[in-house]
Design goal:
The complex is a heterodimer of chains A (361) and B (358). By secondary structure, chain A is of the alpha/beta class. Helix content of chain A is 30%, strand content 14%. Chain A has one domain (8-16, 32-359). Classes of the chains: A alpha/beta (361), B alpha+beta (358). Chains A and B meet through helix 4, helix 5, helix 6, helix 8 and strand 7 of A and helix 1, helix 3, helix 4, strand 2 and strand 9 of B.
Chain lengths: 361, 358
């Protein structure tokens, strides 16, 4: 989820430069494959629902401006005032048709999703082939999805937003502030749009059938909204999305890490990890300091951690000597300190740049 | 004099502590100016690996060993590519599952929804499932913990989110001694999404707990299984389903043997009145390496009428609670050979090529 300030001026500017950007990104590929962006929840849509698809697309363009926009070949934009099995599916499908007609995925494309874009992507992957074939079009061939802070498993903030919408004003002030920060509105019944789909039970009952598209998961654990949302999310979180969702865990039980032996900060230690993951979900990186929106390219200074569950590959042990180290906290006078694993130099960049540069190296 | 004594004592204690620290066997930075080791860093002990949590994959005798990259992201991508290559040995219509995955893919799961209360208490509502078929009973259980004073009963209402009209309501009662409140609402409403509102009076003030459930249309009747057979490298299990309306349907179920989940099976088919049979297939790769004796079971049958157009709703139906038990035919002809889905293999090759760069 990202917040944005929509103004006539900004929209006009965006529309004016869109053509130029598009022309400039005609060959913006990731590892030789076209990139399709699917954004997350945009709280501005709840306060001021977009009037038409053009406004939806304009907002979608703004969403990715920090990093990915100039590195993408197409987007699937949708209004957060709608529901996944409703307006969102309709808006998204119009764009899937265009992508199919342009043949952008004939040689496999890569989806980059953020937050609720994970859930939207999952729903579209389950239905796109049947819909497109019914219209005489080629289904999209997806190589993989790169999911930043994936909200496909829902967030407890959405459960609580629904409750705040139905409770009187006196109720639980800190919780109410957290929900306001998350939704950008004072929730009322009927005003929550896609937040309804983000309820943990609703999300985990929507299009969960296993498929053959690999989902590469990138997980953040920093603070958003000054940390006021964290107490209300199960386990660790990035201020919006719980780790159980971002990792692709099979239940909404609160967990602290995608790995049972590595913390979000990379500390080698016993962790409350997922009991299992959804099929073809592969946690790749965790980053304790990155915030929910910061993973999209705006934050540096946070160390990324490879989600290493075992250190063998094809039977060959991997020497992690060059990327593990020991560190004592200031209060630890004796002992070898705690052992950490990290992506060297990852604090010099953000998670999006890190992945893009690595894949395009 | 006392000041000097204090200083002397401080010096002696500090010296002893410092020396102890310097000479500590665990002090990895000691004498680094002699050994040349970089400060604060140490190589992993030989023969141990503290990042390992699970046994590594079984080494394939045909695997060509290449020195893996020092690039951590590259290593992770290579790991994902290797795991994906393993996964596509199984066709998507028949994938092996763990017990946890079996619970997740069984569908229709409702995890308790917790609402925090002032003072550290919690108001929790639990349902048996998330989706109910029309006219089915909805058993509602609620609990309230904390130091609050709660009334003797709770009210439960099923409400339409659009019209905000109450569809049904009941009282949740607290049987003597039970730590929860319980009651039943009948799902007598049009198919769609509904709000379940459980209202309590806590410390004299009303608190509403709101969660979401769905009411599903009656899609048709499950009429048992046909005769299972082995064709090519699949155990084919015909499932009879008499659909009320034509449409594109997806059927999923879980294959069990001796109480253990073996595979998630799924298929899609258009049902238009000319046939009432969908065929689930268990691929040889999930059966051939197992000792199968006695009956197999199909559990957690779920049928979905898929949305014909974007914006349409997916409708859900469910098989009998006990599933179906059946005696399989001779399975000796099945082999543990890869599925060979061309698109998945192409995808795996591309991912591997990506990983090979590192």
């Amino acid at each position: 989820m990202k917040t944005r300030k929509r103004s006539a001026c900004k929209t006009a500017l965006a529309v004016a430069i869109a053509g130029g950007l598009f022309a400039g990104t005609a060959h913006a590929q990731l590892a030789g494959h076209n990139v399709i962006l699917v954004h997350g929840f945009q709280q501005e849509d709840l306060a001021n629902p977009p009037a038409n698809l053009n406004e939806v697309k304009s907002a979608g363009e703004d969403y990715w401006r920090t990093f990915w926009l100039s590195r993408s070949d197409a987007r699937v934009d949708w209004g957060s005032d709608g529901r996944v099995e409703g307006n969102i599916a309709q808006q998204a499908y119009q764009q899937l048709r265009d992508i199919s007609q342009q043949g952008l995925c004939n040689d496999f494309c890569i989806v980059v999703s953020h937050s609720t874009g994970d859930l939207v992507t999952r729903y579209l992957l389950e239905n796109q082939a049947r819909w497109l074939q019914a219209d005489g079009l080629q289904p999209l061939k997806i190589l993989a999805a790169i999911d930043y802070s994936g909200a496909g498993g829902g967030t407890e903030l959405a459960d609580l937003a629904l409750n705040i919408a139905y409770n009187d004003s006196w109720y639980n002030w800190p919780l109410k502030q957290a929900v306001r920060a998350f939704t950008g509105i004072t929730p009322e019944p009927g005003s929550l749009g896609v937040v309804n789909d983000l309820q943990t039970n609703t999300a985990r009952n929507l299009a969960v059938s296993p498929n053959n598209i690999p989902r590469l998961r990138f997980v953040a654990g920093g603070s958003s909204y000054g940390g006021i949302t964290k107490p209300f999310i199960a386990g660790t979180d990035d201020g919006v999305v719980p780790t159980h969702s971002a990792c692709g865990a099979t239940t909404s039980n609160g967990i602290d890490s995608c790995s049972s032996n590595l913390s979000l900060a990379g500390k080698v230690s016993s962790q409350n990890g997922p009991s299992d993951l959804y099929y073809n979900h592969f946690p790749i990186l965790m980053n304790e300091g990155a915030s929910h929106s910061g993973v999209l390219g705006s934050e540096t200074g946070n160390i990324s951690v490879p989600v290493v569950n075992d250190t063998t590959l094809n039977g060959l042990r991997v020497d992690f000597a060059s990327r593990t180290y020991n560190k004592r906290a200031w209060w630890q006078w004796w002992g070898s300190g705690d052992r950490y694993v990290e992506v060297p130099g990852s604090d010099q960049t953000d998670m999006s740049t890190l992945v893009y540069n690595t894949l395009n190296n | 004099m006392p000041l000097r004594l204090l200083l002397a004592l401080t010096f002696v204690v500090s010296g002893a502590v410092g020396l102890g620290y310097l000479l500590s066997a665990d002090n990895t930075v000691r004498f680094s100016w002699i050994t040349g080791e970089s400060e604060g860093r140490s190589p992993p002990p030989s023969g141990t690996d503290t990042t390992r949590s699970k046994p590594g994959p079984v080494e394939s005798p045909t695997t060509e060993k290449q020195e893996p990259s020092e690039n951590a992201i590259g290593f992770m991508l290579a790991s994902a590519a290797a795991q994906y290559s393993q996964n596509i040995r199984y066709p998507t219509y028949s994938i092996p599952i763990s017990e946890d995955q079996a619970r997740a893919y069984a569908g229709n799961r409702f995890d308790p929804v917790e609402l925090p209360l002032d003072g550290g208490g919690q108001f929790t509502v639990t349902l048996e499932k998330y989706r109910f078929v029309q006219e089915e009973d909805i058993l509602v259980a609620a609990s309230i913990t904390g130091s609050q004073v709660v009334g003797p009963s709770l009210g439960a209402t099923l409400e339409s989110p659009e019209s905000r009209q109450a569809i049904a309501s009941t009282t949740l009662k607290n049987e003597a001694g039970a730590p929860y409140y319980e009651g039943v609402i009948e799902a007598d409403a049009e198919p769609g999404e509904y709000r379940l509102i459980v209202e309590a009076t806590i410390d004299g003030k009303p608190v509403r707990h709101v969660s979401t459930l769905t009411i599903e249309p009656d899609l048709g009747e499950f009429d048992g299984l046909g005769d299972p057979r082995v064709t090519n490298n699949d155990l084919i299990i015909p499932v009879h389903f008499d659909a009320k309306d034509p449409g594109f349907y997806a059927l999923s179920a879980q294959l069990y043997h001796n109480g253990r989940a073996l595979a998630q099976l799924q298929t899609e088919k258009r049902l238009d009145g000319t046939t009432d049979t969908l065929e689930l297939k268990a691929h040889g790769s999930v059966l051939a390496h197992r000792e199968i004796s006695g009956n197999l079971e199909l559990r957690n049958l779920q049928i979905r009428r898929l949305p014909a157009s974007p914006g349409d709703r997916t409708d859900y139906g469910y098989g009998p609670d006990d599933g179906y038990s059946f005696s399989p035919p001779d399975l000796d002809g099945l082999t543990d050979s890869p599925a060979g889905d061309p698109e998945s293999e192409q995808r795996a090759a591309l991912l591997q090529r990506l990983a090979d760069k590192f």
